[in-house]
Design a protein that fits this description.
Blueprint: E1 3-5, E2 12-14, E3 16-19, H1 27-33, H2 38-50, E4 55-57, H3 66-74, E5 83-88, H4 103-117, E6 122-127, H5 136-148, E7 152-158, H6 162-175, E8 180-186, H7 198-205, E9 208-212, H8 236-239, H9 248-265, H10 269-278, E10 283-288, H11 293-300, H12 309-319, H13 328-332, H14 334-339
Helix pairs in contact: 2-3, 2-11, 3-4, 9-12
Length: 344
């Protein structure tokens, strides 16, 4: 397993990490992902550690805390061998204090997460969404106190816009608060919006990307192809509306290119899609999910080899879309690109 620094921090993370959203799954979204109990989860953790995958990502909102609880049971007795990443800020109830990143809520949710995980510290806490109702200074000062108390090692964000992340980093620098070193983002061959603004920000500010849904919300599994019906057992039947949208022709164009490269390399479509991500700027770790051992072992096959420059270019071309304003001039006009060349 390849290990990379997480952004500008000294924390080494594996190129592949494991997403525990399938642990304890319940409800229309997480139940469709999977529902591994503690015994099944322990076996998946065993396989990950054997392969060098020691970073496990979860969130308090995943099945209302059940994911954290099952993960805690699965790593019991080997806390020092793993890195735990969890997230908070999204609603956990209907009450006025059940959502957001206020001081009172952050202190409480961190304590709750520690209990569910069965640990006294979290390696990486990420804010799952930007809380526009809470001053950024309040958020950062609270995270600072939790880091100083030893309950958090590093802090990051997820699903922030460029200005939200940059304003937070600027205020952290001004007041000496911990900087966000990670941004957990959606990025895939059928969803490259991350490249327009967040990737250049990550390069400039030392913020590493932890990639969620690298297979485009289950669309790049190799089971969806031009002219064929959606497989009967696909979770997209129940969860497509939750995930990022994609036009059919764009998806099929990418899948066609993946099929060609699969024939050339002998690798599976998911392995190729993940390997492409691992060669992109700022990507520190790609979060893989698995409902069972077979899926996990297949995804682990995405490392230990590299796509050629020609194959990368083929995938780049197939997956490219026109950037939105104000980004497209920098990609389409030489004068703009000369002043501010694209990150990729």
């Amino acid at each position: 397993m390849d290990y990379r620094n997480l952004g500008a921090s000294g924390l080494k993370v594996p190129a592949l990490s494991f997403g525990a959203g399938t642990f304890g799954g319940s409800g229309p979204l997480f139940g469709a992902w999977g529902n591994s109990d503690a015994t099944e989860a322990r076996r998946l953790v065993d396989i990950c550690l054997e392969a060098g995958v020691n970073l496990f990502d979860t969130a308090d909102v995943y099945s209302n805390g059940a994911s954290e609880q099952v993960l805690g049971a699965a790593i019991k007795g080997r806390r020092d061998a793993v890195l735990i990443s969890t997230k908070t800020s999204l609603p956990m109830g209907d009450g006025p204090s059940d959502a957001g990143s206020s001081r009172s809520r952050l202190i409480k949710v961190v304590e709750d997460a520690l209990k569910r995980l069965g640990t006294d510290y979290i390696d990486l806490l990420q804010l799952h969404a930007f809380d526009a109702a809470t001053p950024i200074e309040e958020v950062l000062s609270t995270l600072d106190s939790l880091v100083r108390a030893g309950k958090l090692r590093y802090v990051g964000v997820s699903n922030f816009s460029g200005w939200q992340a940059m304003k937070s980093l600027g205020l952290a620098d001004r007041y000496g608060y911990p900087r966000y070193v990670a941004h957990q983002v959606y990025y895939s061959l059928i969803g490259r919006d991350y490249e327009w603004e967040l990737m250049p920000l990550g390069l400039d500010q030392g913020v590493g990307a932890l990639v969620w849904s690298p297979l485009g919300w289950g669309r790049l599994t190799g089971k969806i192809r031009r002219g064929e019906k959606l497989p009967e057992k696909s979770r997209l039947h129940d969860t497509a509306s939750f995930g990022p949208p994609v036009e059919d022709e764009h998806l099929y164009r990418v899948v066609d290119a993946l099929d060609v490269i699969a024939e050339e390399t002998g690798k599976t479509v998911p392995q190729i899609a993940i390997n492409w991500l691992l060669q992109r700027p700022t990507v520190a770790s790609v979060i893989i999910g698995a409902r069972n051992e077979e899926q996990l072992r297949q995804n682990l096959g995405a490392v230990g080899w590299s796509l050629t420059a020609e194959q990368m270019e083929k995938l780049d071309t197939a997956s490219e879309i026109t950037a939105p304003y104000p980004y497209f001039p920098y990609r389409r006009q030489e004068g703009f690109a000369r002043l501010n060349p694209p990150a990729v």
